[in-house]
Amino acid sequence: MYTFHFAPVFAHFGRLLQGAAITMELSCGAMLLGLVISVICAAARTSHIVPLRWAVAGYVELIRNTPFLVQIFFIYFGLPAVGISFNPNPAALLALTVNVGAYGTEIIRAGIESIHWGQVEAGIALGLKRVQIFRYIVLKPALRTVYPALTSQFIFLMLTSSVVSVIAANDLAAAGNDVNSDTFASFETYVVVTAMYLVMSTVLSGFFSAIQRMAFRYPLGR
Amino acid sequence: MIRQFGWNEFELLVLAARWTIVLALFAFVGGGIGGLIVALLRTGDSRVARTAMVAFIRVFQGTPLLMQLFLAYFGMAIFGFNVNPLTAAVIALTAHASAYLGEIWRGCIEAVPRGQTEAATVLGLHYVARMRHVVLPQAARIAVPPTVGFLVQLLKETSLTSIIGFVELTRQGQIITSVTFRPFLVYGIVAAVYFILCWPLSLAARGMERGMARATQR
User: Fold this and answer.
1) CB-CB: which of B61, B160, B199 is closest to A61?
2) What is the average per-residue pLDDT within B182-193?
3) Is the ipTM of this complex over 0.90?
4) Residue A92 falls inside a structural domain
């Protein structure tokens, strides 16, 4: 019968916590940058310039139909071959941003498409500028629609970020790999690391639905 | 010695995609059976089973697949099995797919109007007949697009099994990179092969979703 050795793993708990902090930093950074990309790309997809629309569509389809692991290998190992190289953590942030940007574009676009034309026409009739129409009539209500999808995408991103451990970024999964090679308690180490991810995703999920209840109450006032 | 990247290497890469497909199919079939059980228990009458399934789904949707693979891989050794990357990969991917498909199909079962179940009950159909002849056929129709969408996710996720040492497309790419030193080209081809596998499925899923959205609008 196997006896479990959790004590040596908990002796290194500080390192795991540091890794968890990096995981959160990477995920939050990638989500914020990815959101910027998403909004720009979603706006570009409604543009009149056809090549621009195609470029965005190509980006979205390419990222959504290839594995994140291959994307990060391409960025970290492939790009240096053409003279663009990164350290592990920036490469991880870039890969995560590019990845979530594509998914975010589709989410935001679905949000924009949920806006009724009549409201935009009403905005034009009221003499609002193009920017104002996009911001107040299209973007804001769209954000309200896309909030649940975006937040679950964020949690998915946080879980996906564990993959960056393969390029020696120092996130939670990588901290787990280090602790594993120091303690030789593989199963126990990954049980603890997995539990930490579970706590993080559960807390985030609770936090996001609390915000949703507060910010997006129905009927929508004002 | 550095090997040139030639037809041989290209062929090796494309052939390695077989393992990606095999793995995805194993996980899809296993996850399909598991997912059906999860979805039925999750929508069933037993409260204990419902709670257990909620917990199962939460755990597998709330933790990284990479960690699930590690746990399956190292857990096998602990429980006295021979450590074998393929078995560990199939176990982890099956459990993972069961949770996701279970949650997707739960939604589809719940989308079938309650009146259907009630009418079937009134007609004297017991649980199995009610599910088999009334609820599931209707749920299956709306389940197709999200299920195909999940198959795309699963195909991509098989790439993570390369990290526990299973030789599929991504791992083969790593191996070939290490002898040819052509990472840009090799990972480009690897990405292209995944794209060719996934894109038609994505398009099909989206097409069906649109068709269904139009049908329900009327």
Assistant:
1) B199
2) 96
3) yes
4) yes
For residue A208, being part of any structural domain is answered with: yes
Whole-structure pTM value: 0.91
DSSP A163-212: GGGGGT--SHHHHHHHHHHHH--HHHHHHHHHHHHHHHHHHHHHHHHHHH
Domain contains B50? yes
Q: Does any domain span residue B80? A: yes
CATH code where residue B209 lies: 1.10.3720.10
Q: What is the pLDDT of residues A157-216, one digit of tens each?
A: 999 999 999 998 899 999 999 999 999 899 999 999 999 999 999 999 999 999 888 877
Per-residue pLDDT, A217: 64
- Number of domains comprising chain B: 1
**What single letter denotes the amino acid at residue B149?**
G
In a domain, B218, yes or no: no
Tokens of B115: 């009146």
CB contact (8 A) between residue B187 and residue A74: yes
CATH number of the domain within which A195 lies: 1.10.3720.10
What pLDDT sits at residue A222? 45
Whether residue A55 lies inside any domain: the answer is: yes
* Interface contact A194-B64, CB threshold 8 A: yes
What are the φ/ψ torsions at residue B190 (nearest 5 degrees)? -55, -45
Mutate which of B20, B187, B199, B201 to disrupt the A interface (most A C-beta within 10 Å)?
A: B187
